[in-house]
Specification:
Largest sheet: 5 strands, parallel
Number of strands: 12
Structural class: alpha/beta
Radius of gyration: 30 Å
Shape: elongated
CATH class of the largest domain: Alpha Beta
Low-confidence stretches: none
């Protein structure tokens, strides 16, 4: 349902539209002109997609300027759908159509029998409706059971029962492609269409017309077609017929964020954090570790790289780690919600459904995920932390000292430990940063302890999210 109402100053009849000096232009001309204006003013094609500024977006801009139909190749979670949806911003804000038209007929050049008859009958008084650009994108998720009726159209038995002949064009019920006329048609996971349906799209992509059930109806559609596909399906399995590949003017390869800092920015933008009755503070190293887990997984030989490791993994892991910290704060009464290293154990549940294993059974998933987390913590620690106090901290454990950590311990339990271990306290405060709250300092203390363990300077006895750090000599 369209909730956007056209401004009152827009014409409502064909005569008014003509008097206003409206000049129709094709979808490609609209997109090209609006993109050219953005490029001249230095405005980004899409501000909602991060990490593609120097790679994917320049290619996409070039393809749109060339007027090409486009296929985006990439694994899951690479913002392909988001980029497609952002293209509507390149359309004119309002589009005039013949009121009541299913295929958004141009009032000056109607395609459908309905619009042609209405214009012939009403002439300059033909009523005009206005469509907002947000409604000019049609998306279809391809599946093996997608039919020609879904995409192109079918004879409507109700209209036939009402007295129309089978060969009467007015008996047709249009599918999604004709209804996308004068807009953008997006089809996700294109190779999942059956070959018979792929053949039916050939004319749409080349001649820009559709044929319905042998009817001698030819609709010269004005469309920009954008599709997505997994590279494995597109290039290796033969699931996309060669003539259909040839119809796309540009093929653009997407990718996962190259830099951890980029993925951190995406997580900050996309994560849905819970509303809480106390402040939420996220230490920098928690953000780094959570997103680094995804980067480590993308390089792991036991994780299927054909299905990919989505950025959605980083987002889900970030949300679950914050939720674990929230759960603790509610139980302990801590003043702030601050994730700790011990909260990372919750990532097992949010990771299992988002990765696939190549060489092992799913029963070993917990151990694999725990190993990925440990590797991410170790990399983050070694890359960002220089501990002048490392020797003093290890020396403090040489006596009978041990430190318990866990996702259920209150902040005060840690503050008591830091009070008697000044070397650990000093190191944690430097890692936490200037003016850090007690909660962030406590989280940094866990990070320091885990880093010393993973670099083989402390021993650790662990059970779930609970751990005991001790000297390696005992």
């Amino acid at each position: 349902m369209n909730t956007l109402l056209a401004p009152d100053h827009l014409p409502t009849t064909l005569a008014g539209l003509r008097a206003a000096g409206y000049a129709p232009r094709s979808v490609r001309e609209e997109i090209r002109a609006n993109l050219e204006e953005r490029l001249r003013t230095g405005q980004a094609l899409s501000s909602a997609v991060l990490g593609y500024e120097d790679t994917v977006l320049p290619q996409l801009e070039t393809a749109l300027l060339a007027g090409h139909d486009i296929i985006l190749l990439g694994e899951r979670g690479q913002a392909k759908t988001r980029m497609i949806r952002s293209l509507v911003e390149l359309l004119d804000e309002w589009l005039p159509i013949v009121e009541g038209s299913e295929v958004r007929d141009d009032p000056f050049a109607p395609l459908s029998v309905f619009a042609q008859e209405l214009v012939a009958e009403r002439g300059e008084e033909t009523p005009i409706a206005w469509v907002h650009r947000s409604r000019r994108l049609a998306e279809k998720l391809a599946s093996p059971d997608t039919s020609m009726a879904d995409l192109i159209g079918e004879v409507d038995p109700i209209k036939v029962a009402g007295g129309l002949y089978l060969d009467d064009p007015r008996a047709l019920s249009f599918g999604l492609v004709p209804k996308s006329n004068r807009g953008i048609f997006a089809i996700n996971e294109l190779p999942d269409l059956s070959e018979r349906i792929q053949v039916g799209l050939l004319n749409v992509l080349e001649e820009r017309d559709v044929q319905i059930r042998g009817h001698l109806v030819r609709l010269e559609l004005d469309l920009l077609v954008v599709a997505t596909a997994n590279p494995e399906d597109y290039t290796n399995r033969g699931r996309l017929i060669t003539p259909l590949k040839d119809r796309f003017g540009s093929q653009i390869r997407t990718h996962y964020p190259y830099e951890i800092s980029t993925e951190v920015a995406i997580v900050r933008q996309e994560a849905q954090l819970p509303r809480a009755d106390r402040p939420i503070e996220i230490p920098w190293f928690i953000e780094d570790i959570v997103t680094r887990v995804s980067h480590v997984a993308r390089q792991s030989h036991v994780i299927s790289q054909r299905s990919g490791v989505s950025v959605r993994l980083s987002i889900a892991n970030f949300e679950i780690v914050v939720a674990s910290a929230l759960r603790r704060a509610l139980r302990t009464g801590d003043a702030t919600i601050v994730p700790r290293i011990s909260d990372l154990a919750a990532m097992v549940q949010s990771t299992q459904g988002k990765i696939e294993f190549d060489t092992m059974d799913d029963e070993d998933a917990d151990q694999v995920i725990a190993a990925l987390i440990s590797l991410a913590v170790r990399q983050s620690f070694m890359e960002h932390v220089v501990l002048e106090e490392a020797g003093a901290i290890v020396e403090a454990f040489a006596s009978e000292a041990v430190v318990h950590t866990g996702d259920d311990l209150a902040d005060q339990d840690y503050l008591d430990v830091l009070a008697v271990m000044p070397a650990l306290d000093e190191a944690a405060r430097r890692v936490a940063g200037d003016d850090a709250s007690d909660g962030v300092v406590i989280s940094a203390a866990e990070f320091v302890l885990e880093g010393l363990h993973l670099t083989k300077r402390l021993a650790k006895d662990a059970s779930g999210a609970r751990a005991l750090y001790r000297s390696r000599n005992r």
